[in-house]
Amino acid sequence: MNLPGKIIEIATAEIGVEEENGSNCGPRVNSYKAATWLPADKPWPWCAAFVCWVIQQALKVTGIPETPTFQRPQTAGAWDFETWSKKQDTTTWTKKPHGGDILPGDIIIFTFSHIGIAQSAPLPDGTLWTIEGNTDAAGSREGGGVFRKRRKLSQIRSRIRFRV
Hints:
Order of helices and strands: HHHHEEEEEE
Helix content: 25-40%
Strand content: 15-25%
Strand order of the largest sheet: 1-6-2-3-4-5
Number of domains: 1
CATH architecture: Alpha-Beta Complex
Number of helices: 4
Radius of gyration: 14 Å
Number of strands: 6
């Protein structure tokens, strides 16, 4: 399986994970946060950490190595993913604005400083399905779990695609 497919598979398996008592912490959430450069046991918004962790796991499972010109993301900032991607070799491709060019497995950066993973291509009604960490049923960027969400394309700032 290719990297985007493995990313979707791993992220989907995490749907339903929740933090403890609205604390931005918990055993599984802290493991997501450990994939970044920030302290995993401290309470901080973890949407980007979830994406970092999913990519870390997908690289391990697919056997795709990090190299001097391709390093996995370790940022805790959603918009920082754009900077990370632009520093990589041709393994990643950032498109801003996205122009509707979104495929399953793409990293989606939202206009409201949040991040997720595309689970679908855009639908005819101008939405797509995503998997996001640190959200809730209402779609907050400060939620408490990993959810599958239906988002409007107009909410998307950019997308990052893996080419491996």
